[in-house]
Amino acid sequence: MVEFTPNGTKKFSTKSKNLIKIVKLITDKNKKQDFQPKELTAIYKHVLANYTSEISKTDYKRITTAIKDFVEVGGSIEFK
Fold it and tell me: Among residues 1, 14, 22, 40, which is most buried (max CB within 10 A)?
């Protein structure tokens, strides 16, 4: 599971294996798990444009919106 703690808002998490792999690649590449507001914007846009999800449209919209909000405000990521 990966848990996102956005600055100033409620935590959220996911157990999606594919999303965990993507987040792990991002944190490994950047060698950190704490991000400033908008620091991940380019990566978010790239992944969104190139990722094909197998989850329902409702769940996909919910998670992409939550991650977009995380990217906007920054925060920390923790693997559990």
Answer: 40
Q: How far are the Cα atoms of 1, 6, 15, 36, 55 from residue 72, in angstroms, in the given order?
A: 22, 9, 22, 9, 24
What is the value of pTM for the model shown?
0.90
Q: Where are the beta strands (DSSP E) in the chain?
A: 2-6, 12-14, 34-35, 75-79
For the record, the structure tokens of 70 come out as 């995380």
What does the alpha-carbon distance between residue 61 and residue 44 come to, in Å, rounded to a whole number? Answer: 14
Q: Residue 9 has what DSSP assignment?
A: S
Tokens of 45: 């846009």
User: Could you count the other beta carbons within 10 Å of the beta carbon of residue 70?
Assistant: 23
User: What's the mean pLDDT when you consider all of the chain?
Assistant: 94
Residue 14 near residue 20 (C-beta atoms within 8 A): yes
